[in-house]
TrEMBL record, chain A:
Localization per Swiss-Prot or TrEMBL: Cell inner membrane
Family the entry assigns: Belongs to the TsuA/YedE (TC 9.B.102) family.
Pfam families: Sulf_transp
Protein's name in the database: Sulphur transport domain-containing protein
Transmembrane segments: 12-31, 66-85, 125-146, 166-184
Keywords associated with the record: Cell inner membrane, Cell membrane, Membrane, Transmembrane, Transmembrane helix, Transport
Organism superkingdom: Bacteria
Organism ancestry: Bacteria, Pseudomonadati, Bacteroidota, Cytophagia, Cytophagales
Topological relation to the membrane, as annotated: Multi-pass membrane protein
Gene Ontology cellular-component terms listed: plasma membrane
TrEMBL record, chain B:
The keyword Transmembrane is annotated on this UniProt entry: yes
Source species, domain of life: Bacteria
Name the UniProt record assigns to this protein: Transporter
Keyword terms, alphabetized: Membrane, Transmembrane, Transmembrane helix
InterPro entries: Sulf_transp_TsuA/YedE (IPR007272)
Listed transmembrane segments: 21-41, 53-72, 97-117, 123-143
Length: 194, 151
């Protein structure tokens, strides 16, 4: 039993985690005819809290309660993974990525998220504005404009052979590559004050 | 019209019946963190083409999803409530290109797509609560101006 727990605490390889994540598609379809997707939950929260008579938010969000419970579950799952099943060892980031990011001022590679950017102790106003406020806004605006995120388009959409989802996924990647290689170096240097 | 062709109205689930979605969400969030998909570093590795991990995770998830949907359709597997599985077709629109690109920009900054934002909050990275609130703001602003954007 202890061995199983120790094994579960280690990072899960892609060939275990990927198929398990993919099973979410048939599980949601079969337990309640639901199409897997996460970003819609943001729309439902807007519709529930600040609909402001906007047509896009004027619908019966209570019918989408399943989706809100699903994302509440993700929060709980994240908590369990970081407490009961927490990884005793530090994160192993690819050497080449470490080299690239060191050149941009990232110094600590031990945790899932860089401590310099994602902790209350080390954060500063430019990090807050760029990495949480701007980044989060782009994620919320972009996913809704695209009609889905990595779950709804990349996994659910491509699994069901939807052309528009393949297009969306390609543009997710292009956006990420453009940000990483063109803008992120400047943003990181600005935020970290180097 | 033959009565057999009339679909019965989809059942609406309430209260405790909805708990099963919470449980699926818990497993989903657990896997997101344990596979380190929620890691800012893993997303950087992906966009820099320096590790196979994220491509493996997403690729394997799509493969399993595709195979399952194929089997569900081939054997006409019904839902728990006995309904036929319904998958809505998505329609091409400019949003998949423009919005997709914008989301990609944000994904590389936050290191998180929407699922991982929830998982990061749960895993104790509480600064990402600000990311979540800002993502809500982005969604709201899209909804407010959706009719003025190219679609």
């Amino acid at each position: 039993m202890l061995e199983i727990m120790n094994w579960l605490r280690e990072p899960w390889p892609w060939y275990i985690a990927g198929p398990l994540l993919g099973l979410t598609v048939p599980v949601l379809l079969l337990i309640g005819n639901k199409s897997f997707g996460v970003s819609s939950s943001l729309r439902h929260v807007c519709a529930a809290c600040v609909p402001a008579k906007i047509p896009f938010f004027s619908y019966n969000w209570k019918k989408e309660m399943w989706n809100l419970l699903f994302v509440a579950g993700i929060v709980i799952g994240g908590f369990l993974a970081a407490t009961v099943l927490t990884n005793p060892a530090s994160m192993v980031v690819a050497e080449s990525t470490q080299t690239d990011l060191r050149a941009l001022g990232i110094t600590n590679f031990n945790d899932l998220l860089p401590h310099q950017l994602f902790s209350w102790e080390e954060t500063n106003w430019s990090i807050v504005l760029i990495f949480y406020v701007l980044g989060g806004f782009l994620v919320g605006f972009g996913t809704r404009y695209a009609g889905g995120c990595t779950s709804g388009h990349a996994i659910m959409g491509i699994s069901t052979l939807q052309g528009p989802s393949l297009v969306a996924t390609i543009f997710f990647m292009i956006g990420g590559i453009v940000m990483t290689h063109l803008f992120l170096p400047t943003l990181l240097q600005f935020a970290l004050g180097n | 019209m033959n009565a057999k062709t009339i679909d019965k109205a989809p059942s609406e689930e309430k209260g405790l019946q909805l708990l099963k979605y919470l449980i699926v969400g818990i497993f989903f969030g657990l896997i997101l963190v344990k596979s380190e998909v929620v890691s800012w570093f893993r997303i950087q590795e992906m966009f820099r083409f320096q590790s196979f991990h994220m491509y493996g995770v997403i690729g394997a998830a799509i493969a399993v999803g595709m195979l399952s949907v194929f089997l569900i359709k081939k054997f006409s597997i019904k839902t728990l409530a006995g309904e036929t599985v319904e998958i809505k077709d998505k329609v091409f629109k400019k949003g998949q290109i423009i919005g997709g690109f914008i989301f990609g920009l944000g994904w590389a900054v936050t290191g998180a797509c929407p699922g991982p934002i929830f998982a990061q909050i749960g895993a104790g990275y509480s600064v990402t609560l600000i990311t979540f609130i800002s993502a809500l703001a982005g969604t709201w602003v899209y909804g407010r101006f959706a009719h003025k954007l190219p679609n």
